[in-house]
Design a protein that fits this description.
There is one protein chain. This protein has about 425 residues and is an alpha/beta fold. It has three domains: about 80 residues, no CATH class; about 60 residues; about 250 residues, Ribonuclease H-like superfamily/Ribonuclease H (Nucleotidyltransferase, domain 5, 2-Layer Sandwich), CATH 3.30.420. The protein is about 45% helix and about 10% strand. The protein has a five-stranded mixed sheet, with helices on both faces. A two-stranded antiparallel ribbon has the order 1-2. Strands 6-9 form a two-stranded antiparallel ribbon. A hairpin with a 5-residue loop joins strand 4 and strand 5. Helix 4 packs across helix 6, helix 5 crosses helix 6 and helix 8 runs parallel beside helix 9. The radius of gyration is 35 Å and the shape is elongated. The termini are far apart.
Length: about 425
């Protein structure tokens, strides 16, 4: 082989102007490169070393060289060249210190999730280390015992929810399971105490002024604004987000001003999303089945008029049921969660008495003058969502001497009677 030929080290890839006995970068012996012209050149050896480091057997390496590179090499020649390169299957294992350094480097990143077989492969292919698989298993048990314990449990690892105290983070979201029947819900929950701050039913939860009204009403009632507010990216949250940032603009903490509101996907707003799941099992499923029965019986077709009539008859009844749901939830005891750093207890106690649980109130007091300076957001004067339908239904109620319903049974009877009167 010509000593002046430009080439590269097959072990570390370092450029070399001429063939030497040892690589100046990694220090590996390069004697195996001498005499390679008769068996395919340096590139052939590099491919053999690559296949060897990937863990292929000698027979597979010979087949790959023949099929993919057109190089025919005997088993004896292959072993001889690999041995000259210092590559063996079952001897000359790497030092333990080198293994520990490589494993610790991997444990700083995604490698902390590797099982020992994957770590063994990474050490061979990425770091060119020769090591027994059992040795890697024992080192992982020593260097990453917590990770080994988690993997042995064979359970999905969830992130831990952190909150410094009540009013640190409010999670607001809309609930659309009753939307096909013309009923839109909006709710908000405190992330630390899981106290439901508001839960309202109306003709829409897509109007920014409606959501802003719910938010301002809650702020006025509690007398505080949260350190942070989290919503999804819906346009209905824009006014509420602007109010939150305006009320927090003169504060000096890290999350003051624009940082006090946080947009995110609904799937990541887990505190309120998980509560909606509980709400559906304990409350909403009844109303979904009731209205579905009316639809299947032919008394509801999803039209605008039918939705307005259903809201007119059931709106107050559902709102009273929501208020009862909030009252019961905020006074029941919640067990501690493994996926949250927040303590367990009664939501009202956690919210109003955080010092009993080693926490503090993270909210900011609001001045009445600040709230009065904001543009007032009002709900629609037509609870059914249509002023003309509202006026007609009020007249029909008065003309036929009908009473507002108190329970779902009387609301159903009123719905059927008004549907007959209006000939819908």
């Amino acid at each position: 082989m010509d000593r002046d030929r430009v080439m590269f080290c097959p072990f570390c890839g370092q450029h070399m102007s001429q063939l030497t006995r040892f690589c100046f970068s990694c220090g590996r012996s390069l004697q195996c490169l001498r005499g390679m012209d008769q068996t395919g050149g340096p590139d052939m050896l590099e491919q053999c070393i690559q296949y060897f480091n990937e863990g292929h057997s000698y027979v597979v390496i010979m087949d790959m060289m023949s099929s993919s590179h057109g190089v025919h090499i005997s088993l004896r020649s292959l072993k001889s060249k690999l041995n000259e390169a210092g590559l063996y299957r079952r001897k000359d294992y790497s030092s333990t210190n080198a293994l520990i350094r490589a494993i610790r480097l991997e444990l700083r990143g995604p490698g902390q999730l590797f099982v020992y077989r994957m770590m063994w492969q990474v050490l061979k292919q990425k770091y060119n280390l020769r090591v027994k698989r059992d040795h890697v298993m024992n080192l992982l048990r020593e260097l990453n015992p917590r990770g080994c314990e988690r993997r042995a449990r064979r359970r999905f690892i969830r992130r831990t929810y952190h909150s410094m105290g009540p009013n640190y983070m409010w999670h607001a979201d809309g609930y659309d399971k009753l939307k096909p029947f013309g009923l839109a819900l909006s709710g908000c929950i405190d992330g630390f105490s899981l106290k439901v701050l508001w839960l309202a039913c109306g003709p829409t939860n897509n109007d920014p002024s409606v959501i802003a009204h719910y938010f301002l009403s809650c702020v006025r009632h509690l007398g505080v604004i949260p350190m942070r507010l989290r919503t999804d990216c819906g346009t209905e949250n824009g006014t509420m987000a602007a109010i939150q940032c305006t009320l927090r603009h003169h504060h000096n903490d890290y999350y003051s001003g624009a940082s006090s509101h946080m947009y995110g996907s609904s799937t990541n707003n887990q505190r309120i999303e998980s509560w909606w799941s509980i709400f559906r099992k304990g409350r909403c499923q009844f109303w979904m089945e009731l209205f579905a029965d009316l639809r299947d019986a032919g008394y509801f077709n999803g039209s605008h008029e039918h939705q307005c009539l259903l809201r007119y008859c059931f709106g107050d009844v559902i709102q009273r049921d929501l208020d009862e749901c909030v009252r019961l939830w905020n006074t029941h005891r919640i067990r501690p969660s493994r996926t949250a750093s927040c303590p367990g207890g009664v939501p009202n106690e956690l919210y109003y008495l955080p010092h009993r649980f080693g926490s503090r109130d993270c909210g900011f007091k609001t001045e009445q003058a600040e709230l009065d300076a904001l543009p007032e957001a009002h709900l629609s004067r037509a609870p059914c969502g249509d002023p003309n339908m509202q006026e007609y239904l009020d007249f029909a109620m008065e003309h036929n001497h009908l009473q507002k319903p108190e329970y779902w049974q009387s609301a159903t009877e009123l719905y059927l009677k008004l549907k007959e009167i209006a000939q819908l």
